[in-house]
Design a protein that fits this description.
Elements: E1 11-17, H1 25-40, E2 43-48, H2 54-65, E3 73-80, H3 82-98, E4 107-111, H4 117-122, H5 128-136, E5 142-151, E6 156-160, E7 163-167, H6 168-177, H7 180-187, H8 194-205, E8 209-215, E9 218-231, E10 235-236, E11 240-241, E12 253-259, H9 263-275, E13 285-290, E14 293-297, E15 301-305, E16 308-313, E17 316-326
Parallel strand pairs: 1-2, 1-3, 3-4
Antiparallel strand pairs: 5-6, 5-17, 7-9, 7-15, 8-9, 8-14, 9-12, 10-11, 12-13, 14-17, 15-16
Helix pairs in contact: 1-5, 2-3, 6-8
Bound molecules: adenosine-5'-triphosphate.
Length: 336
């Protein structure tokens, strides 16, 4: 893949802030980040998210109106979690899809969510202040893979930086983000415990299901699938290594299918994934690396994309890969 060298026009940052990310953590670090931006003397403007989905609208409109010129390179600097980054990528890419003459604006990122899997995948510090210092030293954008899917039933399409999970991880995310337990734990600053609580709930509630999978090499049908995750990089669920060898530069997506014969067997497989990352060697685990992918489910299942709820529905998706320029300190670019 070509390394997109950018013109060295002066950078202007559009800072897209979601103070609600990370159970409010982003709101706490934002005053410090703002002071650091002012102290660095960089040119910037702040766009604060007022409601879920607002960041997509900002990113889409900025991509249309702030195309790079010889005098100015606009960079979208995201302060939030994986969900906020997801919204930003969708704003940029949907604008370019509607008007292919547009250049996608590069995205910089200061992680302040609860999972921060994208930051982990690209080797960006999890500490927002450290990440900002590194981001401000970046001088050019470089492309990385992002996933794209078409939802045939709902007739819509979407982009993702991390993964789309249908089945077990979809259920954990959906029940956690939707739950009274999480709101109660948030009040006593223990929101992080909500995931383990719902993990064990999902372990007993998630029944095996059928899925038909078509990859570059053919079609296969599974009848006892429990987790069907299409991923752009190794991590999901806040640092769990679902696909250890997944690359953001190979122009391909990794698909991991875990089958379930009993709650105990699935728990064992999941434990291997969390502790030793060697789950893909087991008989009930299946791994595909593919440029294109069709997933067709027979029954309603829960889904998540980049840690955001997709709802419970009968999924019929086609996936492929495209590129997004990122304004990040990618010292490890060749290894991604
Ligand atoms: N003004 C707002 N009010 C309420 N929610 C918002 C607002 N703006 C954005 N959101 C929502 O905040 C949610 C959380 O954001 P995000 O995913 O970035 O953080 P996170 O879930 O803590 O991080 P991670 O995905 O890394 O675990 C998203 O679902 C987004 O839609």
């Amino acid at each position: 893949m070509a390394d997109a060298q950018q013109p060295t026009a002066p950078v202007h940052y559009a800072v897209l802030v979601n103070t609600h990310a990370g159970n409010g953590n982003a709101g706490k670090v934002w005053p410090t980040i703002l002071k650091m931006l002012e102290a660095a003397g960089v040119s910037f403007h702040v766009y604060e998210s007022q409601y879920p989905g607002h960041t997509t609208i900002w990113a889409r409109s900025l991509t249309r109106t702030e195309q790079p010129t010889a005098d100015r390179q606009m960079v979208l600097l995201v302060l939030g979690g994986d969900g906020t980054l997801h919204q930003t990528v969708n704003g940029v890419q949907s604008a370019v899809r509607d008007n292919p003459h547009l250049t996608p604006l590069p995205i910089a990122y200061v992680p302040s969510g609860s999972g921060n899997d994208f930051a982990r995948a690209v080797g960006l510090p999890q500490d927002p202040e450290k990440a900002l210092r590194e981001v401000l030293a970046v001088t050019r954008a470089r492309p990385l893979d992002i996933g794209h899917y078409v939802d045939h039933r709902q007739q819509r399409q979407e982009y993702f930086t991390n993964n789309v999970g249908i089945g077990f991880d979809g259920r954990v995310v959906s029940t956690t983000n939707d739950s009274r337990v999480k709101r109660a734990l948030n009040l006593i600053h223990l929101g992080g415990l909500a995931y383990p609580v719902h993990f064990f709930g999902a372990l007993f509630k998630q029944r095996p299901f059928a899925v038909r999978i078509t990859t570059d090499t053919g079609t296969q049908r599974f009848t006892k699938a429990c987790l069907v995750t299409t991923t752009n990089h190794p991590f999901f669920g806040g640092g769990v290594t679902v696909a250890p060898s997944a690359s953001m530069r190979d122009g391909k997506l990794d698909l991991v299918v875990l089958e379930r014969t009993s709650a105990l067997q699935f728990l064992g497989l999941f434990a291997l994934m969390v502790l030793f990352h060697n789950h893909l060697k087991r008989k009930r685990a299946h791994h595909f690396v593919t440029k294109q992918l069709d997933l067709t489910f027979g029954e309603p299942e829960y889904g998540q994309e980049d840690g955001e709820i997709m709802g419970q529905q009968i999924y019929d998706f086609s996936f492929d890969v495209c590129q997004q320029p990122f304004w990040l300190p990618l010292d490890n670019y060749d290894q991604l």
